[in-house]
Write a structure and sequence with these properties.
Number of helices: 5
CATH class of one domain: Alpha Beta
Strand content: 15-25%
CATH topology of one domain: Rossmann fold
Order of helices and strands: EEEEHEHHHHEE
Shape: globular
Distance between the termini: 30 Å
Oligomer: single chain
Number of strands: 7
Strand order of the largest sheet: 3-2-1-4-5-7-6
CATH superfamily of one domain: Vaccinia Virus protein VP39
Structural class: alpha/beta
Helix content: 25-40%
């Protein structure tokens, strides 16, 4: 009998970024996507998933929804399984705002909804916090505490494209994005 050691990998809130070999879940109803509202429990058995990746999603949940979501990610991960999270880090956004970072404002302005005053950091900062249906903001320190309360013990900050678990899908090139990796 032939044994297959195929890993179960989840790409959550995938949007249009379909990754071969991964279960791509999103609320969108598109080809190649498993349609699922991530505010509800993941449709996987306890301890059945090897890897999880989600990027620019956690900020779209309320504080309580995010805590429940991360506990559920912990539930479905196998012992030794890992998760990578990328999100717009509030500390990086604050630093960009305080320093009036030209690099960041040039990156983000084309993506801002209903942006009326070009190169206006005060409007841009509010748009960053409350645009795109953002519901909550995290610093790495805060999100680490939330992950630890969900059961994860080792939380590491990683650079874009850098991963201890080969899960750096990293579609965003946003200079405010921070990545954390955790293992169960």
């Amino acid at each position: 009998m032939k044994s297959t050691n195929k890993k179960r990998k989840l790409h959550l809130a995938c949007g249009p970024n379909i990754v071969d070999g991964w279960d791509n879940l999103d609320i969108l109803n598109n080809k190649g996507i498993i349609r699922h509202d991530l505010r509800k429990p993941l449709p996987y058995k306890d301890g059945s998933v090897d890897l999880i990746f989600h990027e620019h999603f956690i900020e779209h949940l309320t504080k309580l929804e995010a805590e429940a979501f991360l506990r559920d990610c912990y539930r479905v991960l196998k012992p030794g399984g890992a998760m990578r999270i990328g999100w717009p880090d509030l500390k990086r956004l604050l630093n960009a705002y305080m320093l009036r970072s030209k690099k960041y404002i040039q990156y983000v302005e084309p993506y801002l909804e209903d942006h009326r005053y070009p190169h206006n950091w005060d409007e841009s900062f509010s748009d960053l916090l409350f645009g795109w249906e953002h519901r909550y903001a995290y610093t790495a320190k805060h999100l680490t505490k939330v992950l630890e309360s969900a059961g994860f013990q080792t939380v590491k900050t990683k650079k874009q494209g850098q991963s201890d678990f080969d899960i750096a899908l990293d579609f965003r090139k946003d200079p405010a994005t921070t990545y954390l990796e955790v293992a169960k």
